[in-house]
């Protein structure tokens, strides 16, 4: 049963005043970001896909490297998969970049290598949903469409004291319609970015929004009625499934053995160290490779990696073998320049580099 809260202090606000206050704040406080300096449709698209579930500061160097290597839709459409994965290495959620390549190929085939300047057509492209379509349409094409992500949902939940669960799709649809009423036609690009910015810098998650310095405080019903800190409403997610893995970093002299994951499923098509299901003891690992082939075995530290719906609990071993086994062996240079290793294996990649340094 929902609680009732007193909202009599302020039950509505002046939309025009709120928009003006937001844009004035943005003009004075907007961060300098590489994709803002030249907001072409391609650059806006790349940045928005990268920024999904990734911090702005982490994205900056990736964005620069990506657009330098693949400066337009044609280049992305023709990119080699290994090159593409290497450019994306460390950002995670690799399906994002795989869908980007599919989208680029579609645009080459149907739109002469450009992104269409239509919100509805953008939504039909692979990997582009309501939010990304809204961001490209408003920022790059100056069309009056909202881009509603978690930041924007949080801001408007507090502005309007919404009791709707922001994790539900119907809530997003509801706010898309509401926010359309606020968009200033002459500055829809700035409005979209200003909402993103205030959600990232001022109207922050958890229970500590910076209401004392927020330019929208006067128009925020949540702040005026002392409810901002309890919002937005988010139902708890289901517990992630836990999977145990054993990671084998198999080395011979200055090369390491890799394997490529299947072309479907989690981390599809990426490279990894030998990965076994379950928690394997040292004796099981040696038997798996063959006792007679192993010169040395070192137990590595445990590690954990969280995906959207599953959590890997890993233990690892570094095994120095007497001679090369069948498979893909690569040098340190090849690992750095060619083969993308997912962030899930970072602890074991670090252990490998430490091993290599001891061999110098």
Q: What does the radius of gyration come to?
A: 24 Å
CATH class (first level) name of the largest domain: Mainly Alpha
* Assembly context of the chains: single chain
What CATH architecture of the largest domain would you give? Orthogonal Bundle
Do you know the CATH topology of the largest domain? Answer: Endonuclease III, domain 1
The N- and C-terminal alpha carbons lie at a distance of 66 Å
CATH superfamily label of the largest domain? Hypothetical protein, domain 2
**What share of residues are in beta strands?**
5-15%
- Separate helix tally: 15
* N-to-C series of helices and strands: HHHHHHHHHHHHEEEEHEEEHH
Portion of residues in helices? 40-55%
What characterizes the major β-sheet? 7 strands, mixed
Helix/strand/pairing category:
alpha+beta
What is the count of β-strands? Answer: 7
Q: Quote the average pLDDT.
A: 91
Shape: elongated
The poorly predicted ranges are 1-9
Q: Number of domains in the coordinates? A: 2
Structure, explained:
By secondary structure, the protein is α+β, with helices and mostly antiparallel strands. The protein has 2 domains: 15-230, Endonuclease III, domain 1, CATH 1.10.340; 241-358, Nucleoside Triphosphate Pyrophosphohydrolase (Alpha-Beta Complex). Helix content is 43%, strand content 15%. The chain is built from 15 helices and 7 strands. Strands 1, 2, 3, 4, 5, 6 and 7 form a 7-stranded mixed β-sheet that branches. The longest helix is centred in the first third of the chain and has 17 residues, at 95-111. The termini are far apart. Residues 1-9 have low confidence and may be disordered.
